[in-house]
Every structure is written in structure tokens, then in C-alpha cells.
Design goal:
alpha/beta, Helicase, Ruva Protein, domain 3, Dna Topoisomerase Vi A Subunit, Chain: A, domain 2, 2 domains, 4-stranded parallel beta sheet, two-stranded antiparallel sheet, 10 helices, 6 strands, 46% helix, Recombination protein RecR, DNA repair, DNA_Rcmb_RecR, TOPRIM_RecR, zinc ion binding
């Protein structure tokens, strides 16, 4: 490392801070940047320099976007009556891969983790509750106005809690479930609150499954 020019060394040291990047990989990437055409390097540098200023949170679902509202919420073909709650944007991207889901999202940007001093107020749970309140308290007059303007009446059908199946994810899901039940009880509205199914992965083997995975797979078995 000491034999590298100063600027190249600084780039390599920065790259080592990235997840999964060691010293050798960082050096290779630094040399890769050095060999890039000047135009590509300038474009890359510009995107990096404006990353913070251009990236914002969607006003509806808190997904990352460069506009006020993200492309998913702007898409008229998405089912706005179905909301999947995810921990972070990478989880959202996983759902979007393969075109397996046509609803919309709410991104929490974290999960309840008392050991690391992260409580419900530190992530975007209150924004979810406010969003659900607004959707379920749509007045008759507002519904009539939407129909008059040719808009589909919003009728929240289901909220899918897609937290990761770990202790913190379970705690977050149970907290949100309880808060949503307060809305349903108070306003006498009907929408389902569901949790992603647990079980064995495709291509997996029973031999290597832990007891909790097998337990959830048995509990969540379906007709065949």
C-alpha cells in the first residue's frame, strides 16, 4: 500500500470501508478506476458527489427517490389497497425482483432494537399509522369526489408485515400489529394484517433445517 501514489492510496483506503471489501479487492478497484475513460470517471464522480443532495424519501412510502413521490406510488397499475411494510429499501428491491408483487410499500428504515437504543419512535412507524388512518377515514364526500374525477376509490384491503424473521423483526411486527388493531377497533374498519409465511427454502434440505424453521413450516403447511 505504501508504494501507491497518495491519491490512489486514499481511494483504496476508502473502498476498504465498504461492506465485504478487503485490502486486495480495494486495490484492484482503485486500479480499475484509474483505467476508466475520463468521461466515465467524471460521470461516476458527479453521481457520487450529488448522491446525498439528489436522493430523498418518497412522501408516501418513504422509498428512496429523486422526486417527491417514487415511481412505484406514481404507477397507476399498482394496487394501492395492498401495502407491504419492509425494514429497508433493499427489502423492497427484493420484492421488486421478478415482478412477483403488484401492491405498494411502506419502508420503516429500521426495526425496533432496544439493545441498540432503537425504539418505535426512531423508525417510520408513526408515518405508517398516519397513512393507514388517512386511508381508512376517507369520508363519503371524498369518495364521491374521487369517483366524479374518474379515480378509483381507495379501500385498504391488507397490510403485509414483511419484517425479517429475527427477534427484532418479530418484535417490530407484533408492535405494528397491535397499533393497527387499535385503528381497526376505534374506527370499525376492515382490513387484514398478515405476516410473511415461514418455512423451508426452495432447494433446501430438511437435514440442515433448524427446529424453529421446521416448527414454522409445520404450522404454516397448506393443502396440496
Amino acid at each position: 500500500m505504501n508504494s501507491l501514489p497518495s491519491n490512489l492510496k486514499q481511494i483504496a483506503l476508502f473502498l476498504q470501508k465498504l461492506p465485504g471489501i478487503g485490502e486486495k479487492t480495494a486495490n484492484r478497484l482503485a486500479f480499475f478506476f484509474l483505467k476508466l475513460p475520463e468521461a466515465d470517471l467524471q460521470a461516476f464522480a458527479e453521481n457520487i458527489s450529488t448522491l446525498k443532495t439528489k436522493t430523498k424519501l418518497c412522501k408516501i412510502c418513504l422509498n428512496l427517490t429523486e422526486d417527491e413521490i417514487c415511481g412505484i406510488d406514481q404507477n397507476p397499475n399498482r394496487d394501492k389497497d395492498l401495502i407491504t411494510v419492509v425494514e429497508d429499501v433493499l427489502d423492497l428491491i427484493a420484492f421488486e425482483t421478478g415482478n412477483i408483487y403488484q401492491g405498494v410499500y411502506h419502508v420503516l428504515h429500521g426495526k425496533i432494537d432496544p439493545l441498540n437504543h432503537v425504539g418505535p419512535e426512531d423508525i417510520f412507524i408513526n408515518q405508517l399509522l398516519k397513512r393507514v388512518n388517512e386511508l381508512t377515514s376517507l369520508s363519503i364526500r371524498q369518495a364521491q369526489d374521487r369517483r366524479a374525477n374518474g379515480l378509483k376509490k381507495q379501500n385498504l384491503k391488507e397490510i403485509i408485515l414483511a419484517m425479517n424473521p429475527d427477534m427484532e423483526g418479530e418484535a417490530t411486527a407484533m408492535y405494528i400489529r397491535d397499533r393497527l388493531s387499535e385503528i381497526k377497533t376505534r374506527d370499525n374498519v376492515k382490513f387484514k394484517v398478515t405476516r410473511l409465511a415461514y418455512g423451508l427454502p426452495i432447494g433446501g434440505s430438511l437435514e440442515y433445517a433448524d427446529y424453529m424453521t421446521l416448527k414454522k413450516a409445520i404450522e404454516g403447511r397448506s393443502k396440496f
